[in-house]
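Structure in, sequence out. Go:
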């Protein structure tokens, strides 16, 4: 039995994981994340669930440098409103969000851009929704934790991310150990 821990980049979690956890490097973006997790699900037997850990851009300065629990995810760059659907909803879907197994936490907007947060979500990143969708399809538990590396609306957000990308790994490993 194993929990898969999905991270986009090795730099986000360079440390070894405790026994019972297997790291899956997904690459950046929704498509890469979905492919990598789908391949890992096919490869491993007896998967207990999936945990997504990584960096995210925040909107509130109090979140910067914090490891946050993600309560739900949405696909922030899905826009079929011109076809009569609600924001963030595509054909065949009823809800914009997918709840995580965390039970509580911030709303994470996933999209294939390094962009700012909005009123509908608290933090932004590029993989969580796709991973949650794969887990939903395979009926696997999905947990999600994000280290807020930058304030997404700041002009230097990309520099903040580069400076802080590896800082949350230790906090995440402490969470796994507890």
């Amino acid at each position: 039995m194993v929990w898969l821990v999905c991270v986009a980049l090795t730099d986000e979690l360079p440390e070894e994981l405790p026994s019972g956890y297997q790291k899956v490097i997904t690459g950046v973006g929704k498509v890469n994340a979905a492919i990598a997790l789908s391949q890992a699900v096919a490869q491993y037997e007896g998967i207990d669930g999936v945990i997504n850990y990584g960096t995210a851009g925040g909107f509130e300065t109090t979140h910067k440098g914090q490891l946050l629990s993600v309560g739900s995810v949405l696909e922030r760059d899905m826009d079929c409103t011109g076809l009569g659907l609600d924001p963030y909803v595509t054909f065949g879907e009823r809800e914009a969000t997918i709840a995580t197994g965390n039970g509580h936490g911030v709303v994470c907007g996933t999209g294939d851009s390094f962009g700012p947060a909005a009123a509908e979500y608290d933090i932004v990143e590029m993989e969580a929704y796709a991973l949650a969708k794969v887990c939903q399809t395979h009926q696997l538990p999905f947990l999600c934790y994000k280290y807020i590396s930058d304030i997404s609306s700041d002009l230097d957000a990309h520099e903040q991310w580069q400076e802080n990308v590896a800082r949350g790994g230790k906090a995440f490993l402490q969470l796994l150990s507890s």
